[in-house]
Amino acid sequence: MECTLGPPLGTTRVVSARAPVEPARPIATISAAPARARPTGVTELDRVLGGGLVPGAVVLLAGEPGVGKSTLLLDVAQRWAAQSGGAGPDGTTGGDAAGRAGGEGGGPALVISGEESVSQVRLRAERIGALDDQLYLAAETDLGAVLGHLDAVKPGLLVLDSVQTISAPGVDGVPGGVTQVRAVTAALVAVAKERGIATVLVGHVTKDGQVAGPRVVEHLVDVVLHFEGDRHSSLRLVRGMKNRFGAADEVGCFEMHEGGISSLPDPSGLFLTRYSEPVPGTCVTVAMEGRRALVTEVQALIGAPMAGSPRRTVSGLDSARLAMVLAVLQRRSERLKNDKKLHEREVFAATVGGIRVVEPAADLALALAVASGAHNLAMAPDLVAVGEVGLTGEVRRVGAASRRLAEAARLGFRHALVPPGCGPSAESVPSGMNVVEVADLDEALRHAASFAAGR
């Protein structure tokens, strides 16, 4: 069989059929065992990966400098090595993909650093307790040398930190350039698939937080993860952006500390402040990070009237959402329209614990926090508010309402303001929780005031 390729008016070429490397088989006869995920031992990372690392899968982990990527992956490599079953460079299990699929005897772990010396990495490993006889370490910047280490060690897991520092011989461009990054990634993906090596590539990010290099790199790999975190906070988030083996919207929570980095299976307490007495200008909402519900406190401070253009400052929130909520409160709320001129005052809004909340479901809590600060009236401490605020002042329905309410009830909240369709008539409302549907901002403010008076 022959096929003609080429543009209609251009030069054409003929491609002849050839014998395939492996014949096509009925799908029912193909074993899924080689694609079974092996847990890394880091529970929050396994959550995002969909159960663990798959032999032959290539993961791209991107994040800002200093956020903790190398520390996390060094911990993962040590845990993998500890479960390797003693296989080393002289063993036969390291290059056997079928043997790794069962989850035991997966071969040693190999960490290749292109940015630090082996002594520097050793110091970090010693500090976080990531030393193991089956954890191998090398410092290389040449792709040929990297492939040589794979032949010598025969690892089950390869961690390359980072892909932008490796150069491919015979390829134009400097290390980190578009051509080089594409060539290095393609070569490592081919080797990982051929030998069944679970591979994690560390990637740099640009100023706007995107993966540096050509977008084709994201298409070549199987999983793309973003490592996020504020240097002034101990909270770190690993967010799935692409995953061929699981959900692509999962989020893992970690805590950075002196001894390294550890999983946070229940992080909601980080985003709340415990007050001895209720404080005006605060309200609690439930944000969704992927499929995870996180109870989060929103704070607002209303400054004194000032001439000109008052400041609108946010931390952990979307400045555009704050501006919209302030405009709706001023225009649509009868309680603030006449006596509180928000357009003349400075407004500061923030979240607690370093989490960033940009989804519209936090609008209602932000509006209540602003109104609470403006009237100097504290909200009830066991109240949560969830809902998107529209430009006419209506409260719109949001997704995952049952999961949000269940998480709030688990943490002891007993009152909830929700959009229409998410209240008592909806399914899976937690027992013992007073859930009130509010159609607009004025109704929400009225119920919030009654809850505060009856606390």
Q: In brief, what are we looking at here?
A:
This protein is α/β, with parallel strands linked by helices.
Characterize the quaternary organization of these chains.
Answer: single chain
Major sheet: arrangement of strands: 5-4-6-7-3-8-9-10-11
Beta-strand residue fraction: 15-25%
Q: What percent of the residues sit in helical stretches (DSSP H or I)?
A: 25-40%
Name of the CATH homologous superfamily of the largest domain? P-loop containing nucleotide triphosphate hydrolases
Please write the CATH class name of the largest domain: Alpha Beta
CATH topology heading of the largest domain: Rossmann fold
Total number of domains: 2
Indicate the CATH architecture of the largest domain. 3-Layer(aba) Sandwich
Strand count: 20
Please state the average pLDDT score: 87
Q: Supply the helix-strand structural class.
A: alpha/beta
End-to-end Cα distance, whole Å, is: 81 Å
Task: Tell me the layout of helices and strands.
Elements: E1 2-5, E2 13-16, H1 43-49, E3 58-63, H2 69-82, H3 97-101, E4 109-113, H4 118-128, E5 135-139, H5 143-153, E6 157-161, H6 178-195, E7 198-203, H7 216-220, E8 223-229, E9 235-243, E10 251-257, E11 260-263, E12 282-289, E13 292-305, E14 312-315, H8 319-332, H9 334-337, E15 345-351, H10 363-375, E16 383-385, E17 388-389, E18 395-396, H11 401-410, E19 415-418, E20 434-437, H12 441-453
Parallel strand pairs: 3-7, 3-8, 4-5, 4-6, 6-7, 14-15, 16-19, 19-20
Antiparallel strand pairs: 1-2, 8-9, 9-10, 10-11, 12-13, 13-15, 17-18
Helix pairs in contact: 8-10, 10-12
